[in-house]
Amino acid sequence: MYVFPENLKTWLVGDGYLNNPFYADPYYTGIDWHGYYQNTDVGYLRFIFYFGLLGLIPFCIFMCKVCKVCANYFSMYREAFVMILLLNFIVWFKVSTDIFLVFALFLALIGKNEDKSINEKMFFAPMA
Fold first, then answer.
1. Alpha-carbon gap, residue 21 to 112, rounded angstroms
2. How far is residue 54's CA from residue 74's CA, in Å, rounded to a whole number?
3. Which residue has the higher pLDDT, 58 or 10?
């Protein structure tokens, strides 16, 4: 289950394959994997194989920023958003998840706000 990349290029920028490329990509010259690509379903490792550490780090920062925006806008649920973010990072040790969809619902509610300047202030406001 824990299969790490074998070369520096894959660690840094990944190889672009999230699923088994044997039948989907005519230019793939590797072996035929059965199941998950590289036989790993671990969330962090699948992200590293797909877009490397240079993609994983901004993706994690994006998740933190989305949590911050939701927590600033819906301040009475701040602890819930932080717990959802922690749950997301913990679950990624086993499998990549779609917990972002919870944040997306709240982001859609924020987008309905008429005053765009309030949204901009919340996005750049420090999280207390």
1. 40
2. 31
3. 58
DSSP annotation string for 32-74: --SSSGGG---HHHHHHHHHHHHHHHHHHHHHHHHHHHHHHHT
39 near 70, Cβ under 8 Å?
no
Q: What is the mean pLDDT of the chain?
A: 80
Residue type present at position 14: G
- Interior CA angle at 127 toward 72 and 82, to 5°? 70
How far, in whole angstroms, is CA 94 from its chain's centroid?
A: 13
Give the Å distances, CA to CA, from 49 to 5, 43, 124: 7, 10, 32
The structural domains of the chain, with segments of one domain joined by +, span 8-124
Token couple for 23:
């039948």
